[in-house]
UniProtKB/TrEMBL annotation:
MF (Gene Ontology): alpha-L-arabinofuranosidase activity; xylan 1,4-beta-xylosidase activity
SMART domains associated with the record: Fn3_like, PA14
Keyword set includes Signal: yes
Family membership: Belongs to the glycosyl hydrolase 3 family.
Keyword Hydrolase carried by entry: yes
Protein name: Glycosyl hydrolase
Domain of life, source organism: Bacteria
Keywords attached to this entry: Hydrolase, Signal
SUPFAM superfamilies in alphabetical order: (Trans)glycosidases (SSF51445), Anthrax protective antigen (SSF56988), Beta-D-glucan exohydrolase, C-terminal domain (SSF52279)
Organism the protein comes from: Pararcticibacter amylolyticus
Length: 869
């Protein structure tokens, strides 16, 4: 046989093998008629140890010889597909929680999963391999308990109550993963961050929680995770960064084995938070190196490692050689990993997977836009309405819309977000009601800073032209051939969002840039550089580095710098796009001037009603943010009051005799004691998504009657809070404190409701029985509206237990002057609390109180005593 023929036959056999066939026989792992676990076991038997390790990374490498494609475990769908463009952006989860509408939450995440599938398959058909943020594994929902309003990531959660969080989380998972009886999962959802995690952001990599009481653990921090495992069959659980009782959560046998698998029966995979395994030896110091950390993680039950840069799990073969872990332990983890991939159908032909048929036309279609608006409306929570100022009249007259969030698109998107095709800001929403000519707009002030900046950008020069000279490379190292240069003559605001290049010929990914200019100081004074970037950013003046970071979101930086009159300063910015992340760059500089509201008040002469749109934004609160402002640290807050500059603006409006409607946009509770005096009405609008501005306008002008209820307590001041790193629930949330500014469950309507005496199906409840409350509701006002009935349980003589805890809720819509009746069922498990003597959750026979009404405030609740056998 000729050598060429030998090579040809060999290559032919390789092709057959790669297709999973030999002599017409389908290999088991390629056989769709077998179970996912059977296929995974067969595939594992064909892998080398090195290949096994590669498949346990969040960016799982391909194994071409077996036809295994690259697979990315890390995508986000917190409130729509994140980190991509032209998708539907729904309200932030904390706003969704205010709806108390888990059925609508299900519909939203069913829609979001359609968009994820459509985006994924469209990319696959274009020949693009799986990549971060465009895969079928989505790391949501966040079901941590929002125990402290200072936590910057509380906006990602469904509030402070374990039961509400459980109901919302179950709806999210079922919407994302698809029907339980489907052969293939639509997506893989993920319950995070397990467990006992809610800040602070600045210490999460080192924090050790060694004083969490068993009662707090089981009654507060674990119920939502248990519900997602046992009721929703969530396919992934993400372990958190911090230590619990001296063991990192991702290496914690009690959490990952005893509780999760032995007690709850979880059969699916555990993924690490990104960098959590590396933290074992860099932060927690429980491992000596990456090899030990990898072995510890897998032995504890963490199956997939997510990283920012270097994988510890890549050293698993070394861990086996050193005797730190047996290979069969790796196989056990990998079995869960590969079973999940087979469950998605990503290793099968698209013709077998119904979800692959979802067309791209579903993305941000009319139905999804309607869902986004519907949820945004239902999230609107009216906190105060003195003298019934709201709803405002739409008669043709001038109204002022002012404030730093009034015309702010990104604020509405929240965090962990995608970018929508169009966004309706609050200003635009109000203009749609009154017309542009009847709305006077002014930003009025910054979110935080008590200064305004006069830009000096036009006073710069490069190559004899005003502005900066920009040079671009199609690599991240600013090396080799410059692709293009251009002159930038106005403050820098560049983004790759929407597939926009920084400059013609510059890639959307894997590029770098340098921006250079010269500035001659007109005065001896302090100037300020204001900049922000997603990616690598460095600012230099006269070759001296002033600020440098490499970050995965755009963070605002304020850098003061003293200059001398007449002296020239070389200003240089170095930038590089960060792998897998959208590129953004913003820059301006100049001198700051004190805020003076005299001009604003003069501008508003003759206008009686002012809508002030302020609060916070994800530039201030969020995940592990290296940039801090007064009152903010690392993405969290150090106090919970409204920033001073906004308080001062509201005082000036009050002093000028204006009727003020304060629209507070935030992802967390704000202490609004002064604002209850300076403002006539307060609307909590959260981060409302792509249609948030229209939803606000609909509420302000009475086209929609607000029905939202607070999923978190609004405290009076920071002084009411315990230490941020203290995870004891004592004095926290409505369940353990009774003196808030606005209670959990509070929310006003434009109409009034009367809740009558409940009819209860039984007052002596035997083991395993369900009790039903029939609640009569009358709309005693003149406007159709929706009330949210809330049922709480209090255990009699329960020392150290919650004052009350939510166990049921129901939305009921009632026409003006009409009555309705709704039922709320409480299963036997609604009376379950932690038994200190038996060290477990159980229903203890005895006396209980059922409290029902329209908020957690005792003044709005009626009581029924029951006996549980």
């Amino acid at each position: 046989m000729k050598p060429g023929n030998t090579i040809t036959i060999f290559c032919f056999l390789l092709v057959i093998l790669s297709a999973g066939r030999l002599s017409g026989q389908v290999l088991p792992y390629k056989n769709p008629s077998l179970s996912s676990e059977e296929r995974a076991r067969d595939l594992i038997s064909r892998l080398t140890l090195e290949e096994k390790a590669l498949l346990m990374m969040d960016e799982s490498k391909p194994v071409p010889r077996l036809g295994i494609k690259k697979f990315s475990w890390w995508s986000e769908a917190l409130h729509g597909l994140a980190n991509t463009d032209s998708v539907t952006v729904f309200p932030e989860p904390i706003g969704m929680a205010a709806s108390f509408n888990d059925s609508l939450v299900y519909r939203i995440f069913d829609a979001a999963s359609d968009e994820v599938r459509a985006k994924y398959h469209a990319a696959q058909r274009r020949g693009q391999e799986s990549r971060r943020f465009l895969g079928l594994s989505v790391w949501t929902p966040n079901v941590n308990i929002f125990r402290d309003p200072r936590w910057g990531r509380g906006q990602e959660t469904y509030g402070e109550d374990p039961y509400l969080t459980s109901r919302m989380g179950v709806a999210v998972v079922k919407g994302l993963q698809g029907p339980a009886n489907s052969k293939y999962r639509k997506l893989l959802a993920c319950a995070k961050h397990y467990a006992v995690h809610s800040g602070p952001e600045w210490s999460r990599h080192e924090l050790n929680l060694n004083n969490v009481s068993p009662r707090d653990l089981w009654e507060t921090y674990l119920p939502a995770f248990k519900s997602l495992v046992q009721e929703a069959d969530v396919r992934q659980v993400m372990c958190a960064y911090q230590r619990l009782d001296d063991e990192p959560c991702c290496g914690n046998n009690r959490l990952l084995q005893t509780i999760l698998r032995d007690d709850w029966g979880f059969k699916h995979l555990v993924v690490s938070d990104c960098g959590a395994i590396t933290d074992f030896f860099t932060s927690h110091k429980v491992s000596s190196d990456s090899v030990h950390a990898a072995a510890k993680g897998v032995i504890a039950g963490t199956d997939v490692e997510c990283v920012w840069d270097r994988y510890a799990y890549g050293t698993l073969p070394d861990a086996v050689k050193r005797g730190l872990i047996p290979e069969d332990k790796i196989d056990k983890s990998l079995l869960r990993v590969l079973t999940a991939r087979f469950d998605l159908g990503e290793m099968d032909d698209d013709s077998l997977v119904p979800w692959s048929k979802i067309p791209a036309s579903v993305i941000n279609n009319d139905e999804h836009r309607r869902l986004a608006l519907e949820m945004s409306r239902e999230s609107m929570t009216l906190l105060q309405n003195r003298n019934r100022l709201l709803p405002l009249s739409v008669r043709k007259r001038k109204i002022a819309v002012i404030g730093p969030n009034a015309d702010n698109e990104p604020m509405l998107w929240g965090n962990y977000n995608g970018k929508p095709i169009r966004t309706i800001t609050i200003l635009k929403g109000i203009q749609s009601k009154l017309g542009d000519g009847n709305v006077v707009y002014d930003k009025a002030c910054d979110l935080v800073e008590n200064k305004v900046m006069e830009s000096y950008f036009s006073k710069t020069s490069a190559g004899g032209k005003t502005g900066f000279k920009a040079s671009y490379w199609n690599n991240r190292d600013m090396k080799g051939e410059v692709v293009t240069t251009r002159q930038i003559g106005e403050p820098v605001k560049l983004t790759t969002a929407g597939q926009h290049e920084f400059a013609s010929g510059v890639r959307l990914e894997a590029f770098s840039a340098k921006y250079e200019t010269e500035f001659q100081a007109p005065e001896t004074e302090e100037i300020v550089f204001k900049c922000g970037a997603t990616g690598y950013f460095e600012l230099l003046v006269n070759d001296s580095s002033l600020v440098k970071y490499n970050n995965w979101r755009t963070l605002p930086s304020r850098v003061p710098y003293k200059v001398e009159k007449g002296r020239k300063y070389a200003i240089e910015i170095r930038y590089a796009q960060l792998n897998n992340w959208q590129a953004n760059l913003e820059f301006d500089f100049g001198k700051e001037l004190d805020v003076d509201f005299t001009g604003l008040i003069n501008k508003l002469k003759g206008i009686d009603e002012v809508v002030f749109v302020g609060g916070l934004s994800t530039l201030l609160e969020g995940e592990e943010m290296p940039v801090s402002y007064p009152g903010f640290k690392g993405g969290d807050r150090t106090d919970i009051e409204l920033p001073e500059v906004q308080r001062n603006c509201l005082k000036a409006l009050k002093a000028a005799g204006k009727k003020v409607v304060f629209v507070n946009c935030s992802g967390s509770p704000v202490a609004l004691v002064p604002e209850t005096q300076t403002c006539d009405a307060i609307l909590q609008a959260w981060y409302g998504g792509e249609s948030g501005g229209l939803a606000v306008a609909d509420v302000l002008f009475g086209d929609y009657n607000p029905s939202g209820k607070l999923p978190v307590t609004f405290y009076k001041s920071t002084s009411q809070l315990a230490g941020f790193e203290d995870y004891s629930m004592k004095g926290r949330t409505y369940r353990f404190m009774s003196d808030p500014l606005f209670s959990f469950g509070h929310g006003l309507s434009y109409t009034t409701f009367s809740i009558g005496n409940a009819h209860i199906s039984k007052q002596i409840i035997d083991k395993g029985e369900t009790v039903t409350l029939n609640l009569p509701v009358k709309n005693t006002g003149k406007m159709n509206g929706t009330e949210i009935l809330q049922v709480y349980v209090r255990k009699g003589n329960d020392q150290g237990g919650p004052l009350k805890t939510l166990r049921g809720f129901k939305r009921v819509s009632v026409a003006a002057g009409k009555s309705a009746s709704e039922t709320v069922e409480l299963p036997y498990s609604a009376f379950e609390f932690y038994n200190e003597e038996k060290l477990k959750m159980e229903v203890t026979p005895g006396e209980y109180e059922l409290l029902y009404g329209n908020s957690s405030d005792d003044r709005s609740l009626k009581k029924i005593k029951v006996s549980v056998l």
